[in-house]
Queue: 2 jobs
Job 1
Amino acid sequence: MGHHTNDGPITESLEDYLETIYELIRDKQVARVKDIAKIRGVRMASVSPAMHRLRDLGLIVYNQREYIQLTPKGEQVARKVIAHHEILRRFLRDFLHVDKKIAEQDACQIEHHISDQTIDRLVRFFEFMDTCPLGSQVQEMFKNCSEVNPELPACMEECARYDAQMRLEHEQGNSLLSELEPGEKGKILHIKALGALRQRLIDMGLLPQTMVEVERVAPSGDPIWLKVRGFNISLRKQEANGILVERQATA
Amino acid sequence: MAAEKAVGKKIKIALAGNPNCGKTSLFNALTGTHQRVGNYPGITVEKKEGRYRDDDWEIEVIDLPGTYSLSSYSPEERIARRELLRDDIDVVVVVADSTNLERNLYLLVQVMELGANPVLALNMSDEAHAGGQRLDVELMSMLLGFPIVETVGHKGGGAKLLREAIRRAYDNPTHGERFSFGPQLERTVMRLAEKLAPLLPQPSPPPRWLAIKLLERDGELGQWLRDNVAESAGLFTDVEKEIEELEKFGRTDIILFIADNRYSFLSGLLREVRISEMRADSRATSDFVDAILCNRIVGLPIFFAAMYVLFWLTFTVGEWPMRLIESFFGYLGNTIGGLWPAGSESPLRSLLVDGVLAGVGGVLVFLPNIILLFFGLALMEDSGYMSRAAFLVDRFMHRFGLHGKSFVPMLTGFGCTVPGIMATRTLENERDRLTTMLVLPLMSCGARLPIYMLLIPAFFASRWQAPMLFLIYMTGIVLAVLLARLLRSTLLAGEDAPFVMELPPYRLPTLRAVAIKMGQRSWSYVRKAGTIILAISILMWVATSFPRAPERSVEQEPILAYEDDASRDLSYSLAGRMGKLLEPLTTMMGSDYRIATAMLGAFAAKEVFVAQLGIVFSLGEADETSTSLRETLRRHYTPLQAFAMMLFLLVATPCMATVAIMRKESGSWKWALLQFFGLTTIGWLLSVAVYQIGRLVIG
Ligand SMILES: Nc1nc2c(ncn2[C@@H]2O[C@H](COP(=O)(O)OP(=O)(O)OP(=O)(O)O)[C@@H](O)[C@H]2O)c(=O)[nH]1
């Protein structure tokens, strides 16, 4: 799809040229036809028509003899393409765990066709995954999932169940164990944590319906100290986030 | 005069149990001092074996790592169940803390699922009785089908009965027949087991257990099945179908459903056999102590005070036996040296005195410190305070990618790296433990102090001396923190192991248990001194003594005015030549071949650097207070060069004792060498950078 200017659409290849010019100016202060041709892997002669077109569109300043400069509008378009590239590459690599080289290639392809709205949502998605405590857990889960890494155990069913459970709980408005204050009691409703943590909690007898009491917290507020079934254990808040409880009235 | 009794039966048993259930105490009670401690190959998990005789039976005991369950999430669990699956294990003694039966018997249930032949030791029975719990042990034994004994591990109470029970279990083996899940799950397990049985190769784990683990989606066994059973694909679809069915029935997920089945069995069992429950206030004393020791305000100050006492004890009280050992080795050196005529140049004499005795003596002088430190640490562990300490400082340590339990080993590292590395045994998680061990040499140890004490006063005005020393120590700490973070995001990356740490009630440690623990660890230090360190000492001696410089002929003038025989010998030797070979590298950090040669000596032990410097500058015997050495150094180097030197000695080339202990504790040369070369590279880069940049700035 590409961008539109008053004089019609900028093609994919024009966008690539803009990107190259921008990067050349950024890294070497000047952009010469020679360098552009080299980077894009074409002959110098084939660069000229594109330069003329870009000039006509008001994106660059160009006359045969001199270095090429970006107009403010040109710079804006170039920046945008580069930003899209970055975002896409990060998504492909960090979230989908696509191989480095393929991520780079695909980002190059997609960057020209993606809408502003999708990019905007991708950025919000990154933010969400970074700030929401469950985000990192889900990322980790996906990475450790058999679909990505065939040597690991299956995980899809677990995710589906987890999802259903989460929705149910949100409606009921219960607390996370990490939100209880020292002295408060709660009844475990659900263990949201997955994998090793989940197994460990269950092995230690933290099952649904079990009563827990927050006895105290460490000097810095984390980890917390619990009384469960007559014994004491300590958990980091991060781990206590994985347990949903129903707060009990304190006597 | 009694002749050795003929050996009747030879059997093998394993001890399994939760952490802190008193398993080690019981193991000690059974085997006395007939124990061997090692590592499982390639990982940091401790392996303990022992044996005892019971009449004409000879019984070999394997102490499994303490675990809460037999899933495959931690190396301990995987090892415990791999050992339990060995078909030469005749009896499994499950040790349970009677004051906390539900959770402790959860492991018993899993041992029964495995089809092992169990005996149950209800340990801590003294505490349980005092707390008001009474059990009908006979009925319990009838219901479960195997012998059950009440024991008091640390006092050896019930050990005799336990030995009998083990023999009875051997003669009448059971295989967990008396355990069953609820009907729904049980039927599924049976159905799957029947399906599995004809497909399995020989030998393989019991089909019933495999079926359970498949339902739990156990990673390790899933992989095993894929590798070993041709028709596994269809099996997995079947398993998934069964899981779906069960989840619909149980209205929960399969892991919880199975756990719930186990706990239900246990609560049913306990309802039958528990005559009276523990009183709710039975832990009041321990809780009261915690209210003080783990108090939000005074908890940390108390902890630091305790640490201070521990180190005071270690290094101050350790002082005089240390002197004793030192003078003993000095005396031994003189005596052995005296066997040769005075002034003898016999290589054998030099090997014995300068190589073997100096090397081994240099390591053994730390033995008093180590014994005292391990005594203190064993006290902290056995009393239950260690986990409180971890609770108090975990936040701080976790920020740097470490664990609360890393704190004490790191602190120990300021005394000596070797016991610090050994003290990381309290860390249960492999990754946490490796990270801690790898960065530990950056805690500037006591042996490096003489180096700073020599160099700092030589090069810096007195008002800069204290800040300088502080700067060096801080650099080490900051580097350790950075390196820990780096390791946790590269080589040792991965989700944090769950920090779910039990805080057992305070218990009065017994001298016997503490002594055994201390003894084993100290002994493993001594053994290192006798083997690897001895070998390296001899190598280092060879390197610094050979080839010998030819006799100086009369007409030959000394090349350098100040050069004496000792320094000529050293520079002619392998070490001297290596020093020269390394000179291009040390030049970049501002030092010459003399320093390089002395640094090679620092590999033997850090403080040897000072003595070596004395030799290369022909000043004879030198220590860190030697003013002539300081003078000479000042003439040859600038403060900047001296600083770069100290940085290098702080960070690079952990000493040979560290390399040896690292190899042992991490279970492989890989980590020891990685640490050695990694730190050396970092140290070199750092001192080169400091020197080069410093030169530009100072001009
Ligand atoms: N009162 C009482 N204390 C015991 C008993 N058995 C062991 N202890 C104490 O409990 C503490 C822990 O015992 P250990 O034998 O080290 O426990 P463990 O299960 O080996 O613990 P880890 O080494 O952490 O796996 C020590 O202080 C023992 O003296 C017992 O039967 N009764």
Note: Chain B touches chain A through 56 residues (CB under 8 Å).
Job 2
Amino acid sequence: MVKVTGGQRLDIFGIKKEDLPAVWADRNAAGMVSGHAYAKALRTVKTCVGSNWCRFGTQDSTGLGIKTEQMTWGSFMPHKFKIAVSGCPRNCAEVGLEYIKKRIVEDVEGRVALTARFHFSQRFMQDDPWAKRAAGEDYKLHQHLAEIRPLAAPALVAA
Amino acid sequence: MSAVGKWLDIGPVDQLPALGARTLPVRGGRKIAIFHTANGEVYALANQCPHKQGPLSQGIVHDTTVTCPLHNWRISLVTGEALGEDKGCVPVIPVKIDGGRILIGRAAALEGVA
């Protein structure tokens, strides 16, 4: 089953362990790094449909959401955190925490400093933790160790 | 029967992930899970929790215990017994390490094979 959630996340169920590296590879090729829907990381950026599709929309919220994801991908953190973009004051994407607004919206100097710190950290951290496994590293861990075939003589085939 | 030996060589120890497990299907029999503990010890159990047949090979290994992913039963890797208040036992397959290779007891591994 595939479930698309309110935050543009994909829940993909029923994948067998041995198929995981191929699934990671497919998703990486499509630019969807596994983990941003479930990990301790930046989750996918939630947006309303914005001025493209909504008669109340005043700004391109989906466009800003995509830009924000491209800037922040790979930020795996000690806790999940979420970013959302709303295109008008009706706030369909349910944006806004008072403390965050104070630090980011109202405090211009603080925002500039935090932005610089974030970009600096991303220089070292922005990588896909599944890329190596998708490329084949440790692929045997997803397979049987061996198989015992007692009927065809006492044969044993190592994986 | 002595000609076929008491032990089956199933591969090198370094093909087991640390604190993890790999599986060993037996044709016509039951699947076996091979576990690797933090101390580097190797144990083998039938890959079925005695409770609801959960895949023990996908559980979390800690000390000489594995926790079933389905309902959190803790199973001793040494005796196969469920720990705590739970009651049940998983068949244990004897393991020995010889020159970095894993050997498992043939008779226990083939139990249930027609």
Note: The first strand of chain B starts at residue 7 and ends at 12.
